[in-house]
From TrEMBL:
Annotated SUPFAM superfamilies: lambda repressor-like DNA-binding domains, Periplasmic binding protein-like I
Species of provenance: Serratia grimesii
InterPro entries: HTH_LacI (IPR000843), LacI/GalR-like_sensor (IPR046335), Lambda_DNA-bd_dom_sf (IPR010982), Peripla_BP_I (IPR028082)
Protein name: LacI family DNA-binding transcriptional regulator
GO molecular function: DNA-binding transcription factor activity; transcription cis-regulatory region binding
Amino acid sequence: MPIKKVTSHDVARVAGVSRTVVSRAFSNQGRVSQKNRELVMRVASQLGYAPDAIAQSLHTGKTGFVAVVVNHFHDLSDLEFFDRLVEQLQNSNRQAVMIRLEGIEDPASYLKQTISYHVDSAVVFADNISARTAKDLFRIATPIMLNGLAGDALCDALNADEAPSLQQLAALMAQKGQRQVAVLGGRSSAKGEQVRQQTFLTHAAAQQLQIVAQLSGDYSYQSGFKLAPQLLAAQPAPQAIFCTADSMAMGVMDYIRLHTPLRIPQDVAVYGFDDIPMAAWPSYQLTSVRRDISAMIAAIVQLVELRSSSPQAAPQQVTIPTELVVRASC
């Protein structure tokens, strides 16, 4: 025999209040006294009642769902970042709906076919989704873009100010006499990657550094390990290798130590980007550009809250600082 589901009617009857009071107590919308709120919560706990999220969304127009659209999870920096982002969204009574687009030939068509639920906000990291596409597909006024494709002010945009740290990195190479430099980047199609590499190359040229090799990986440890031989085979030989992700830099370092007689940093220095926790491990001690992840996540959650309370508010442009963290790899 099926167990009877406890409803708001039951809570209202036992508590001796109206259903409206029960609804207001759980939704935090409308006026309800603290005494009645505590009474409703106590009775609901005793009866084992939990509000129906779908029913609530029909009433309030809010689902509590936040779409988080990504390319992949190859980069080790993704692990910490998305774990903390999901945690903070949950702490604000929201649920992340993770959507991975790597390998999808037509992302817009794929999303159109698979999105069968309403979301309150969309946070877009994937570099193959424009602001206008996100706006139309998710049926929201202002998506939150972190892929460098801010477009024509249709969206909120959050970017890291990487230029000062990359300028310091190039200057540090010059100071240490590392004039021949190899660069290992990520996906060349990614707007953020293009800007990062071009910014570094501009500052490298200003320091009169010579770029002896420039290859593209996929941000993974494996791609750094695999492409390291090609970087090291450049002529003249690189005195420093800059990787646009720490995971690739660690792959390069392990290849050097396992398969060459070269010493880090005496023979070749290695630099990374993101300053993931593993960069500080004794086995790596990787010099890296740090983005303030806490500030980034706080800004994302604030934008999500803004879009929930004021969907038509003017688009916001948020910039997060970076810093160069110098360790023994250089």
